Each structure stands twice: as structure tokens, then as C-alpha cells.
């Protein structure tokens, strides 16, 4: 009894509430980052040039004199996101069922209540557990190789590096965890509640489902495009898109110069033929005049001899 009184008069700690707020804040930042990250990655659907343009601008190429960008910017971005990822994961572990007994209790309650929000929370737990390992691998690869955001290098990593199963599983987990998490944040903190909470909840549920379908669609399409590029690029693993594009431009310029030189040669040949034809026509016009001159001379001699013959008569 005394111990109960002592515990009851103790000042309640605000630390759990602060940790909960920190978890919500890191989750919000990571969720929005996932939205943008998937949109940027899906630019490969529009072509290798579009993806290279996006990746170079993310590397701050517009601030570089050479246009190559600064891979160090990607390094610090991955460092920041990785730090938030670890903090969010550690805060989330507080609510995980840490034993098989706790897991069985939760499963039994879910089957008994059949509550949709509890089911969503369980999906977040499962996806978070998978992401802790798959996401860590992805972050480490980008952390160790910040300058490899390139259409060909990314495709080589997915196909030749046999990373596509990891990225496929990670894609599904990330889309589900991020969109469900953002939805639950809105429910938890009363964002966009409006006057009618029930209607607002239904609208947010529809938006959540549509976002899940949208991001899964563009994510899978983007991954398939990378797989196709990686298969076609198997013989040139390690080649960068920028170097390949430069080589293609040089070949095109060479072909254009050859074509222009060929056109000039044809034009010169035509001009030469036209000049020769003109000279020949001029010679033909002058030749009758030369032939007529002896006839004129003979007629003049004949006229001169006629008066002499008449005189002798």
C-alpha cells in the first residue's frame, strides 16, 4: 500500500510524449522524402536523359561550372536521411512486440476485434521490420557510392548486381509503410479533421489507398525499365551514361560532317558539269560563224572577178 501511494504521488514523466512527438516528426519527414524519392526515381520511365537530368540536378549540377555536379551533396543527403531512419526505427522499437507471446496476444486481439486501424498498425510493424534490414542495405550502398546515380550504373546495380529482388521488396514495404504512416499521423494529431470527423476519415482513407496504388505503379514500372536497361547493358557494365552520350554525340557530329562534305562534293560536281556544258554550248554557237567565213570570202572573190571578165569582153 505504501509503495502504491509513493508511486501515485510521483510526478509523471513527459518523456514518453516527447519521444512520441519525435517519432511522429521523423516519420513525417521520411514519408514526404519517400514520395519525392519515388517520383525522382520514376523519371526513368520518361527516358535515360530525363533520369540523368534529375540526378544531376540533385547533385547540384546547376552550381557546377563543368555541369558534372557534386556527389558529396548526395553523401550528406544520405547521411541525413540515414540518421533520421535510425532515430525513427529506434523510437518505433518501443512499441514492437518483443516476444512471441506478445505477438500471439496481438494476433488474437486482431482476429477477435477485426479493427481496420489495428490491422494497419500491424502492417506497419511488419514492413518496418523488413525495412530495417533492406533499407539499411540500400542506404549503405548509396552512402559508399554517392556518385553512382546514373541510368546505366543504377541499372547495372539492379541487374548485374542482382539487387532487383531487394529493391522490389523494399519498394512494396516503403510504399505501404510511408502512406499508412502519414495517414495515421493525420488521424493521431487531428490534421485535416474538419467539422465532420467521419467524412474526413473516409476522404483520407481514399487518398491513402490511391497514393498506395499510384506509387506502387510508378515504382514497379520504373524498376522494370531499369531491368530492361540493365539487360541490354550487360556487356558494358561500368559504363556511365554521360560518357556514352558524349560518344554518341561525337559519332552523330562525325556523320553530320560527312554528310555535309558529301553534299558539298555533289554540289561542286554539279557546278563543274554545268560549267562544262556551258562551255560546250558556247563552242557550238561559235563554230558556224567560222564555217561561214570561207563562203563569204569566195563570194567576194567571185564578185571581184566578174567585172574583170566583162571588161575583157
UniProtKB/TrEMBL annotation:
CDD domains: QFR_TypeB_TM (cd00581)
Leader sequence residues: none
Region of interest called Disordered, as start-end residue ranges on this chain: 259-313
Keywords from the UniProt entry: Heme, Iron, Membrane, Metal-binding, Oxidoreductase, Transmembrane, Transmembrane helix
GO annotation terms (biological process): tricarboxylic acid cycle
Transmembrane segments: 21-40, 70-93, 120-144, 164-186, 207-231
Record-listed E.C. numbers: 1.3.99.1
Annotated compartments: Membrane
Pfam families to which the protein is assigned, alphabetical: Sdh_cyt (PF01127)
Biased composition (Acidic residues): 268-313
Record has Oxidoreductase as a keyword: yes
One Gene Ontology CC term in the entry: membrane
Protein name per UniProt: FrdC1: fumarate reductase, cytochrome b subunit
Organism listed in the record: Desulfobacula toluolica (strain DSM 7467 / Tol2)
Gene encoding the protein: frdC1
Amino acid at each position: 500500500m505504501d509503495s502504491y501511494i509513493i508511486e501515485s504521488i510521483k510526478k509523471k514523466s513527459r518523456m514518453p510524449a516527447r519521444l512520441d512527438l519525435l517519432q511522429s516528426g521523423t516519420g513525417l519527414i521520411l514519408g514526404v522524402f519517400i514520395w519525392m524519392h519515388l517520383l525522382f526515381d520514376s523519371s526513368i520511365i520518361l527516358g535515360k536523359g530525363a533520369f540523368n537530368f534529375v540526378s544531376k540536378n540533385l547533385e547540384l549540377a546547376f552550381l557546377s561550372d563543368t555541369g558534372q555536379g557534386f556527389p558529396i551533396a548526395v553523401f550528406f543527403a544520405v547521411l541525413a536521411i540515414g540518421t533520421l531512419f535510425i532515430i525513427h526505427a529506434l523510437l518505433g522499437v518501443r512499441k514492437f512486440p518483443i516476444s512471441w507471446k506478445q505477438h500471439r496476444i496481438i494476433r488474437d486481439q486482431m482476429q477477435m476485434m477485426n479493427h481496420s486501424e489495428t490491422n494497419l498498425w500491424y502492417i506497419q510493424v511488419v514492413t518496418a521490420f523488413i525495412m530495417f534490414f533492406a533499407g539499411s542495405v540500400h542506404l549503405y550502398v548509396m552512402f559508399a557510392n554517392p556518385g553512382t546515380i546514373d541510368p546505366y550504373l543504377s541499372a547495372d546495380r539492379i541487374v548485374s548486381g542482382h539487387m532487383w529482388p531487394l529493391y522490389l521488396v523494399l519498394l512494396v514495404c516503403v510504399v505501404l509503410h510511408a502512406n499508412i504512416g502519414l495517414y495515421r499521423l493525420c488521424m493521431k494529431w487531428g490534421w485535416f479533421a474538419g467539422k465532420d470527423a467521419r467524412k474526413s476519415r473516409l476522404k483520407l482513407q481514399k487518398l491513402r489507398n490511391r497514393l498506395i496504388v499510384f506509387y506502387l505503379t510508378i515504382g514497379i514500372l520504373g524498376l522494370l525499365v531499369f531491368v530492361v536497361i540493365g539487360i541490354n547493358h550487360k556487356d558494358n557494365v561500368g559504363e556511365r551514361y554521360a560518357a556514352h552520350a558524349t560518344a554518341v554525340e561525337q559519332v552523330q557530329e562525325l556523320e553530320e560532317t560527312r554528310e555535309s562534305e558529301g553534299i558539298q562534293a555533289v554540289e561542286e560536281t554539279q557546278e563543274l558539269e554545268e560549267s562544262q556544258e556551258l562551255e560546250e554550248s558556247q563552242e557550238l554557237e561559235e563554230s558556224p560563224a567560222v564555217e561561214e567565213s570561207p563562203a563569204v570570202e569566195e563570194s567576194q572573190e567571185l564578185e571581184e572577178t566578174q567585172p574583170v571578165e566583162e571588161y575583157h569582153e
